[in-house]
Amino acid sequence: MALKDNIQSLLGQVQEMKAANAEELEALRIKYLSKKGEITALFNEFRTVPSDQKRELGQLLNQLRQETEGRINELREQFEAKQAEADRLDLTRTPDPIALGTRHPLSLVREEIEDIFSRIGFTIAQGPEVEDDKHVYGMLNFAPEHPARDMQDTFFIEKEKGVQKPTDVLLRSHTSSVQTRVMTSQKPPIRVLCPGRVYRNEAISARAHCFFHQVEGLYIDKNVSFADLREALLYFSKEMFGPETKIRLRPSYFPFTEPSAEMDISCNICGGKGCSFCKGTGWVEILGCGMVDPNVLEACGIDSKEYSGYAFGMGVERITNLKYRVKDLRLFSENDVRFLKQFESC
Ligand code: PHE
After folding, report:
1. Residue-wise pLDDT tens digits, 187-222
2. What is the per-residue pLDDT across 134-182, written as a single tens digit (0 to 9) for each?
């Protein structure tokens, strides 16, 4: 009855069969059920069994085979179910958050300036950053040897490699160059806003940079007066810094405007009482302006007897500092997300 014992011992093992993965399961199948498997061997042995025992042993053998197959299938289903669970997509799961980018504070402020002036009829004009002397200085009433070219610390572009001497190709040091381009290509009335990047050869520090951004404005029509300029700038200042804001114009000098002025606003940090930001004066300077010099109009082909105009120019960084109290200019160009993220809600 060795065969019967063998069958029964295998029957005992079947329910205990375990497999940690699909490979182990396949190994079990081979061990018991393949052509050379243990159960197949028992079936071969069965042929030699005397016929009076065939019935009992045959039944037992069939039971063993069925139970083995059943257990292996059971284990296989368990693996498949586990795999299906792992593969299942949970469509209700909230997705990983998408990191939100932020607008750059200089873009926010530039757009706000553009928006304020567009409400009083200004349109945007653009021009090249690599310019020629004529558009940046010549047509703007700078005499050929005028020191302003040095005062504005112009970056000249070498025509030939290694030739350092000033050429007439340069990086614009103010966006007034766009104004000369507009005046020479359009007929009055002209009412444009010229935003853009400008370059000056300055050592980089918390208070100066070799590039920054300006928004300049130009209005040319018949009978444009200094009072019109003042009204436009007062309107801008109140829109930008709040309705309580006051302005003050101080005489100044620019080659392209006559008369020229610098404009202060009442310090928006202390409300004009005097604080460390406004150095106790209650005022902070925000822009330069003036009536377009008749020489400039004539140089651009506009009849200065028929037309007059005003111009103004401001630094976007300066306005941004006032609005958001950014103390170090370098933050604007370092792209440090810890700085930029602070403008997420703006
Ligand atoms: N272009 C001047 C500057 O860059 C600003 C300015 C523009 C002043 C228009 C007066 C009129 O400093």
Report:
1. 999 999 999 999 998 889 888 899 999 999 999 999
2. 999 999 998 878 776 765 688 888 766 666 555 688 999 999 999 999 9
- Token duo for residue 236: 């801008």
Chain segment 71-111, per-residue pLDDT in tens: 999 999 988 888 888 888 788 888 888 888 889 999 999 99
Q: Does the Cβ of 310 fall within 6 Å of ligand 1?
A: no
Tell whether the torsion through CA atoms of 266, 270, 275 and 278 is positive or negative.
negative
Alpha carbon 275 to chain centroid, angstroms: 34
pLDDT band (50, 70, 90) for residue 326? confident
Return the CATH number of the domain spanning residue range 105-343: 3.30.930.10
Nearest CA owner, ligand 1 atom 10? 289
Q: Is the CB of 216 under 6 A from ligand 1?
A: yes
| Domain ranges across the chain | 2-87, 105-343
Q: What is the whole-number distance in angstroms between the Cα of residue 137 and the centre of ligand 1?
A: 12
Confirm or reject: Cβ of 122 under 6 Å from ligand 1: no
Give the chain's end-to-end CA distance (angstroms, integer): 90
Pocket test for ligand 1, best of 216, 219, 220, 314 (most atoms within 8 A of CB): 216
The amino acid occupying position 6 is N
